[in-house]
Specification:
Elements (H helix, E strand, L loop, with lengths): L6 H4 L1 H6 L4 H7 L11 H17 L5 H17 L2
Amino acid sequence: MPLRKDVATTYKAYFDAHPAYQTFADQASRTVEVPNVPNSVQVWQTFRDAYSSSVIFGKQPVDAALSGAATKVTSLAGQS
């Protein structure tokens, strides 16, 4: 479902039929899109790669992976 403030009312019939998802509808009104920043695709991919490498696959320590990603992201975000 799309992020929107009015999801509970827009899809009322769905949430009435699936009451377990009403908490989701309530929380959806508090969500926001990922900010669009310069090089955002590269920024998020850098983070995903570091996270996957360290947390999911255990190929490197988490601290080292995220520290390296932070350096690269800082550089990418500074380019405009």
